[in-house]
Fold Exocyst complex component 3.
Amino acid sequence: MEETDREAVATAVQRVAGMLQRPDQLDKVEQYRRREARKKASVEARLKAAIQSQLDGVRTGLSQLHNALNDVKDIQQSLIDVNKDWRQSINTIENLKDVKDAVVQHSQLAAAVENLKNIFSVPEIVRETQDLIERGELLQAHRKLMDLECSRDNLMYEQYRMDSKNTHDMNLIHTYFGDMQKLSEELAKQLWMVVQRSLVTVRRDPTLLVSVVRIIEREEKIDRRMLDRKKQTGFIPPGRPKKWKEKMFDILERTVSTRIEGTQADTRESDKMWLVRHLEIIRKYVLDDLLVAKTLLDQCFPPQYDIFNKLLNMYHQALSTRMQELAAEDLEANEIVSLLTWVLNTYKSTEMMGNSELSPEVDVNSLNPLISQNVVDQLLSKYMSTLTSNIIGWLRKALETDKKDWIKETEPEADQDGYYQTTLPAIVFQMFEQNLQVAAQINEDLKTKVLLLCLQQMNSFLTRYKDEAQLYKEEHLKNRQYPQCYVQYMIAVINNCQTFKESIISLKRKYLKIEMEDTLSSSHTSMDATLDVIAKEGCSSLLDEVFMDLEPHLNELMTKKWLMGSNAVGTICVTVEDYFNDFARIKKPYKKTMTIEAHRRVVVEYIRAIMLKRISFKNAEERKEGAERMIKEAEQFRFLFKKLAAGSGEDTEGLCDIIEAIAEVIKLTDPSLLYLEVSTLVSKYPDIRDDHIAALLTVRGDASRDMKQMIIETLDQGPSQPNPNYVPIFKEITVPTLTVPKLLK
């Protein structure tokens, strides 16, 4: 206590020292004293109140402990009295055992008396119930069945209570009610028949379906009651729980599966379109069934059954199983497409699950895929492999068919513009179109793959087409009388090249996305190049045909017969024009090329005839006559090819100018100017060689060996200034050298 006082004094001193640190604070000593006095009084008042409260609490606690002690003593005394009374009543309880047994027996007898009427009338109720079932009055039949079951269950329960181990009496009751179990099974059969045909029944007699559902609901309630009693007593009647609700859904599931599987009416052997027909029947049946389930069936079941969604899941699962079974079969290419189109597109389209009448209950976005992506990929891979083989086969067959047309004795068909053509491009691209349209039904990715495949195979096909066209030409050269319409069909082959080009462009524009075009540019270029080669070789073979007919007339050029007035050039012009009447049926890009090439080859052959030195003019008069004839014939050629090239924009002047330039060299009368004329010729046509000049001077007939040598050597030393637009022509012309026999001669 003294220590506490010391601490209090020290604290007070410290506090006062803090208040009186400056002289001016001494004036406030009285004020400080009053403030501290008030604080002291306040603390003392609170302390007194707290102590008083603690004292009141202690007083109350002591009072309650005293009362609790008295209560414990009273309870102890009561327990002593109860124990005394219990010990005194033990003998009395043992004497009441007979009464207890009598009460149990009375309870059993009371149950028996209560069910006595039903017990004696069991055979009659069984017969009545059987009649009701046969008449289809299922609710009434079930009511009587419930009464019979209730009587049996109550009797068996009382027997179980009295002696649960007495199986003899239990079996006796069970045997007596044995027909009731048969009735239950018969009634169940009728119920399941109605459930199996529920989608039909709900349209014709919805009341019957409602009755079946009510019966199942009754049985479900009885099952729950029996299971609850089993938890309490351990007793459950035989045949319980029946689980008819669970069985009903099992029946519905089996019915749905059977309905899906049973829609296949045909096989591949009996109908090539068996799968399309099968899938269409499935689509129609499933859509009709779900619409009925939504509009009618849903109203016949309690909401907690959620019958529509359960049926939807059943149909989805059954369809998934069936689609997987179909996918596992050895399907052909068109069947794979039909299956994938149905699975990936039709199923969720407005024609089926996406039908507006099924929404909002059916959300197509929440439906799982009918078959896994792995199976889809396997089917697509198989389809592409099969399609590749099919396209190769189709192209080969189309080409073989076209080749058979080439040897016909009738001209090929012409299009609306009069151009010869065969059916090959139409057949090929119709096939491509069909496969692309089919692929587009599945997805864009497959469509692109099929397009790439078609163009890839087209590239290979064009190589075979080129080879076959070459063989066609070679066979014709063995016997020019066969085939009869060789020219016309070769024209058709050339025109087909242009048709192929246009069709490829059209196909890409229609089925290929713009961003994918770069990936096919090289392939397209390759195909265009191959087609140009085929067309060029075709044009060349036709011109070969022309010049084989012209050969006898070309051989007359620059001969004595020619100089004396042969009409060889006239015949050449007529023959060329006659051929070009057929060539008019060649499409424009190649027709123009054909005309230019024919013009060039005629001029080349004419110049070659000059260079062959078949004639050597004896004097100026012959040279003049020959030169004028050459100029005249050049004009004939110019007129002919201007006529043939009408509207094509071809320059028909330049080539014939070469003949006229050569004629001027031959026509020259002053030998001293010969070098100048020849140099002019060389400057215009720089590809002319020394042997060409020598041959030309030989044809003139007045140039000595020394003059020829001098002119050639001088020209070799002179500068050459070729025309940049000039296309070399003399390089194709070979000048024959003098043979030994000719020298001897």
